[in-house]
Amino acid sequence: AGLLPPEFCRTNLVLPLRLEDGLLTIAMADPSDIFKRENLEMLLGLRLNVVMAKGKDLEQRIGAVYGALPDEAEAAPDVMEEIDIVIEDTQEETNVEELLTSSGVPPVVRVVHAVLSEALRRGASDIHIEPRLKYTAVRFRIDGLLQDRMRLPPNVQAAVASRIKVLAKMDIAEKRRPQDGRITVRAPERMVDLRVSTLPTMHGENIVLRLLDLGGTVRHIEALGLDPDNLERVRKVVRRPQGILICTGPTGSGKTTMLYSLLREHLRPTSSYGTIEDPVEYYIESAAQVHVREKTGLSFPVALRSMLRQDPDVILVGEIRDRETAQIAFQAALTGHLVLSTLHTNSAVATVTRLVNLGVERYLIASGIEAVIAQRLLRALCERCRRPTQPEGDVLRLLDLRPEEVGEIQKGVGCEHCNQTGYVGRSGVFEVLEFTDRLRELILAGSRQSELLEVARDDGMRTLFEDALGKVQAGLTTLDEVLRVLGPRAVAGRPCPGCAGPLEPTFAVCPLCGYEVRRLCPKCSTHLVEEWKYCPTCGRPCNSELEECTTGTCAP
């Protein structure tokens, strides 16, 4: 009976009866299900002797062997059986061939446990199991980037998929439709929730597992990478008694970590706290935490309405996904509650446009929001192998920077500590937009996003790019990382490095302070790069005369 989980036996109406000399006698309600039989053979690594039994008889026998199904099982589908994973304390690569040929535990079980163990040991956030023509690739996402870790033989892929489906309580016979499931893993000193997603592809089922550390410690806000000015702004906002504070950015940019750090900053014994998430990612002892379950009708709007009747002071809403959730959150903010939540936008000022598109009235946005924090995660340089270097010209051009704007920077050369990558861990870059009276007036007037950005910068907001550049100059990350995460820098609407005034793409010098933005050929007005000796368009030498003429209006 210990060969298969009870829930799997109940769902698939199968029951192991006897194991002798590698031959497992198993009762099935439908012995003609060839796919299920093949999956069980690969999964268990045993030969099967299948006997037929009536469905009702099997249900009764399974209940007698494993115990009756609890009445509350359907009402609480998230209660998962735990599997134990031993994290090996070694830096050696996993030997797939050895796992598949050694005796004892079925080979597929060893392979899956080895994959999970290595992913936990290396601090991966996601596991990708990708079937290809000649092999199955196993890749881990570490510090935001995917890394190849193993190659499995193609004939093992189906068995690995079946093993993971069994653990996640999925239908192992269903291979034509996507499925979702969960696995709870108990490792030494940690509990990890695995969100499993399968997708049928040409060469088999693609499987992705998202790792969520259930025992993770909420980080201090000082440890997130905020500079002193932004840290002071955020602390000031989170101490306000009501309003909305929104964290924005793409998936995996650290928004939930920031929300919980803000919640930790606010925690006091005289206040009431609640969180509404899908799933709950950190546990706070003094907070009422709700796991959203759309299938049972416990959606974000329903949970948020109910939470408001629980007399909370601070509410953390995992994500504002729709108009209804947004409307309730803003009403809560205007009736004496502090609401912390997230959105998916590219910048802080874009949050206004996103909320308007969701159907939130501008007067609610202007009066309800206290601040918006846009953020990204950049890989941090390895402190053991970083060395001084000069910025590369190609990267400078893509970021629209001059060498003198950057100065000497650092670069990781690679060592054992950083696995030859030059980076260890990640650090945040931030854009903290505090809502001032001027900004609220512009929002009510329906001003454009560019106007909101200009006023925000006048009020002291540093953009994501400026914060990232400051971390490059401090030796914490690289321009390559800035380019990878933030992308090439658009010149349009760029603030002047000298006075922060607005610049048009055609400007060679700032009209407000005279800062030289770019060098233009006096003959054909081509944008010239610092190291060029001749203009590539007209062939004019880039000599000292060119240094004196930056407007492109001089006679040739």
CATH class of the largest domain: Alpha Beta
Could you report the average pLDDT, rounded to the nearest whole number? Answer: 82
How much of the sequence lies in strands comes to 15-25%
- Please identify which CATH superfamily of the largest domain we are dealing with: P-loop containing nucleotide triphosphate hydrolases
Helical region count?
A: 19
Count of distinct strands: 21
Task: Give a quick account of the main beta sheet: strands, pairing sense, barrel closure.
Answer: 7 strands, mixed
| Count of separate structural domains | 4
Low-confidence stretches: 70-81, 544-556
Short précis:
With 556 residues, the chain is of the alpha/beta class. It has helices at residues 6-12, 34-44, 55-66, 96-101, 107-122, 157-167, 228-238, 255-266, 300-308, 323-334, 350-358, 362-368, 393-398, 403-406, 437-444, 449-458, 464-473, 479-486, 544-548; strands at 14-20, 23-28, 47-52, 82-84, 126-131, 136-142, 145-152, 179-187, 190-201, 204-213, 243-248, 273-277, 287-291, 314-317, 338-343, 369-381, 386-389, 409-412, 423-434, 519-520, 527-528.
Reconstruct the topology from this structure.
Elements: H1 6-12, E1 14-20, E2 23-28, H2 34-44, E3 47-52, H3 55-66, E4 82-84, H4 96-101, H5 107-122, E5 126-131, E6 136-142, E7 145-152, H6 157-167, E8 179-187, E9 190-201, E10 204-213, H7 228-238, E11 243-248, H8 255-266, E12 273-277, E13 287-291, H9 300-308, E14 314-317, H10 323-334, E15 338-343, H11 350-358, H12 362-368, E16 369-381, E17 386-389, H13 393-398, H14 403-406, E18 409-412, E19 423-434, H15 437-444, H16 449-458, H17 464-473, H18 479-486, E20 519-520, E21 527-528, H19 544-548
Parallel strand pairs: 2-3, 4-8, 11-15, 11-16, 12-13, 12-14, 14-15
Antiparallel strand pairs: 1-2, 5-6, 5-10, 6-7, 8-9, 9-10, 16-19, 17-18, 20-21
